[in-house]
Write a structure and sequence with these properties.
Elements (H helix, E strand, L loop, with lengths): L2 E8 L3 H13 L3 E4 L7 H4 L6 E2 L17 E2 H11 L5 E2 L4 E7 L2 E6 L4 E9 L19 E2 L12 E5 L3 H9 L9 E5 L10 H12 L3 E4 L3 E6 L2 E6 L2 E6 L2 E4 L7 H5 L22
Parallel strand pairs: 1-2, 1-8, 2-5, 9-16, 10-11, 10-16, 11-12
Antiparallel strand pairs: 3-4, 6-7, 7-8, 13-14, 14-15
């Protein structure tokens, strides 16, 4: 028998958990569907000890789940506590949505069915990372970094000039005893998408000779245990034991479109078309 609710919320990150916590506070029958076995998969996958920022502070939003700047571990612990009044279903991956407003049917990977009057789609993009597509042996490539302290005495290349890439690179040299040789590759000339504090820390590490940075640079191949990087001054062959690619992510558009959601254009980074009420 299908579970019947007024609101089905897909995704348990900050947006989804906030919606579910508010529904619980109002006494609205709801369910929070999370495809993994834990809440907030994106933040759960942040590197250990990461400082999670809560900017911009001037954004006038309120939530019944606490959200303030602090360590990843502290934030996740608080959210587990705040989620206690919420009707959470873990390992509940949604594979199909049918129907219309007032009468939606959601089918889960397990075959179970949820019926809902309305749906909040709060899935984020981190489960769909942009992949490194270059010739050669890419078995050394990974797309997240759980614990920088696990890596010792390795040649590591981080690809990506955003906050994730910079924080990963800095984490890998945080303890001099690790003896990692770390390079960071950024396709842009600067770091416009990263927070100023992260950029300042990266520049300090570069100037101290602890990290090598390559800007206006792209990767072209793996050859004989080295990553070939195309720099403005020509190709550079960087010895590599491990590559951590933090090149952003894209919405799982095909999956979303299968539910009947339309997008504003065919572009890969296009947003869904919304009503004036943001529906």
């Amino acid at each position: 028998m299908a579970e019947q609710v007024r609101i089905a919320i897909i995704g348990s990150g900050p947006a989804g958990l906030s919606a579910a916590a508010h529904a619980a506070k109002l006494g609205v029958k709801h369910v929070l569907l999370e495809k993994t076995d834990h809440l907030s998969d994106t933040i759960y996958k942040y590197q250990r000890g990461k400082h999670v920022m809560a900017t911009p502070v001037q954004l006038v939003l309120r939530s019944d789940a606490r959200f303030e700047a602090g360590k990843r571990e502290m934030l996740l612990e608080r959210w587990d506590e705040d989620a206690k009044p919420v009707n959470v279903r873990l390992n509940a991956e949604v594979t199909k949505i049918e129907g219309a407003k007032g009468a939606f049917t959601l089918t889960l990977k397990s075959g179970e069915v949820v019926e809902a009057e309305a749906i909040v789609l709060a899935i984020g993009t981190q489960g769909n990372p942009n992949l490194l597509r270059v010739p050669g042996d890419t078995s050394c490539v990974q797309y997240q970094l759980d614990d920088p302290a696990e890596y010792v005495d390795e040649n590591i290349v981080v690809i990506g000039g955003g906050d994730a890439g910079i924080e990963n690179a800095l984490g890998l040299i945080a303890d001099p005893e690790q003896k990692n040789v770390v390079s960071l590759i950024n396709r842009d000339a600067g770091f416009p998408f990263a927070k100023s504090a992260n950029v300042s820390n990266l520049m300090a590490a570069r100037d101290a000779g602890r990290i090598t940075t390559y800007v206006e640079t792209n990767t072209s191949a793996f050859e004989d245990g080295k990553l070939v990087a195309e720099t403005p001054n020509g190709p550079v062959h960087i010895p590599v034991d491990r590559v951590i690619a933090r090149m952003g992510s894209a919405p799982p558009r095909t999956w979303v479109e299968s539910f009947g959601v339309q997008f504003t254009s065919p572009a890969r980074n296009a947003y869904p078309a919304l009503t004036p009420q943001f529906e």
